[in-house]
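In this notation, each integer encodes one residue's backbone shape. One such record reads:

___
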Amino acid sequence: MQTIRLTPEDVIPEQEHTLAHGTVPVVLSLSAYDIPKSVSADLQGGQLRITFNYVDNEESVARPADHDLTVLVGKNSGKVLGFVVKSDARKPREITVRIVQGVDEQLRRAALRPNQRLNYRLIRRVVESKLELLLTPS
């Protein structure tokens, strides 16, 4: 299994601006529990499992994006805990693109709470910037 520790620069969280009660400005941001500390990849039985490691441990629920990609989300928090990709000898770039598409699909079709939306966007950025490095043999 390969693991990459994420630096604070890797996981700079976005903020979401909204209005409470229609007039009071509110800034939402992720808690430390919604920001991954590292990302791991492991090939298991013809499937690539990508895991985001957080300060807490939470049971995951599988949400199939399609027949090749499953998103693993926290049972209670809804944050992205990982992905399972059917590995058919794809190149790291192809896997990265597929996961980014899966995250985008989840953002479009799922009814997400603001903290989940921020977590999905953060995971998307980490996948775009770190996954190819993680999947490329050294």
Q: What stands out?
A: The mean pLDDT is 89. The chain has one domain: 2-135. Strands lie at 2-5, 15-20, 24-29, 38-44, 47-53, 60-64, 69-74, 80-86. The longest helix spans residues 114-135.
